[in-house]
Amino acid sequence: MTGKFFHSRRARVLAVSFTAAAFAVTGGAALKSHARAEAYRNIVNNTYQHAFAELTTAVAEMDAALQKSAYATSQSLLAQLCTELFGRAMSAQMAIGELPYGNVELAQTASFVAKVGDYAAALSKSTAAGGGTTEEEKESLRALAAASGQLSQMLQDLQADIHGGTVTLEDLEQAEARLAQAQGAGGDAAGSSFQDVEADFPEVPTLIYDGPFSEHLSTQRQPRALEGLEEVTQEEAKAAAAAFMGLKPEIFTSVSTGEGAIPYWGFSAVVDGGEAYLEVSRQGGKVTELMNSRPVGEASLTAEEGVQTARTFLAEQGYGDMEPSYYINQSNILTVNFAARQGEVLCYPDLIKVAVALDNGSIVGFEADGYLMNHAQRTLEAPAVLAEEAQAVLDPALECLSHQLAIIPTGGKYEVLCHEFKCRLEDGRHYIVYVNAQTGSEEKILLLIEDESGTLTI
């Protein structure tokens, strides 16, 4: 708050003015001090909300890793998942430590994530030593997964209430006052928001819009799909951007340039009440990205029609033999993930994302970095492990729904041919399990998250 100081116009009231000014200065200082205290309180409250959001995210990721590890049969994959579990548990513990009296108010939650971290570390150590896992250990993992799923949902519900304004997080001073009151009343006092979570804490046994493989690109490699193509001029790149959208080049303006794995020119144009931004590779003149900010109205197309629109658009742009995998609908914009197909093999590294506006079927988003970095005609070896042999590796609790061969990326720049099994648990949850087609060992497990907006994997 800004104070205004008024000066006397007559000498005979000068003393009174000085006195009034002194009070004004004092009052102004008090108001500024109050404003600073309020600003500090807001900062602290935002910090607590951030910590709670971190806790919710860490527990959700811990839950995903637990569910995957419960059905992993290869030692290498289980060891990898246990390492991930330990990291997520540590993140959750740090978030609890940032909340006011978090280790007191969320004692069971803190104990649970610590137990998960310790168990993951012990399993990782025994697995690395070649000990494998016993059926008892698998049952413990499944029980932990069941508990973590319930805990994750409760935390997400509480976070939704916080965002909706129906619940607020206490600051340290409020928590201290309430706990002191509880101690003076023999333990009877109004509880915090956390106590609802603790009261309904699941039973703990005694003792993981967008599609798969979208974050594997390496900036240390050259784009395989652009090899041998000539450099284009900036004007040629602008013409390519215009042709991609079926518009005239004159309406596009050069707005950026970039280096990185795929050097590009960036162009923008005002289209349909929004701004379209495109990036075009300097080598080959291929559109690598499109973003269109135009408002999207009420949907007139179904998700299936949106997928077909995206497939037709890709074919018109020269991307034939692309297979849609997963999609998500956000605010009537359907984003579809496509992977290239080579014969019977689906090549997930060759990824293209297409976003379709469901009000009129126009293309409002496009991303082809994965395809341009990885696509090439591959020399594929015949699988040494048959589909029936690979399926035998799956956990017996998983019902196999479908099978196909697929190329998936490893953690580095390599690829591996796998048997892809889409599976279902008795409770209706869906998994995708990848078994190495040459060694017969599990390579990766994904969870399918399915709701009315589409299907995602984690």
UniProtKB/TrEMBL annotation:
GO terms for biological process: spore germination. Residues 192-380 form the Sporulation protein YpeB PepSY1 and PepSY2 domain. Residues 38-169 form the Sporulation protein YpeB N-terminal domain. InterPro entries: YpeB_N, YpeB_PepSY1-2. This is Germination protein YpeB. Residues 1-24 form the signal peptide. NCBIfam families: spore_YpeB. Pfam families: YPEB_N, YPEB_PepSY1-2. The keyword Chloroplast does not apply. Keywords: Signal. The gene is ypeB.
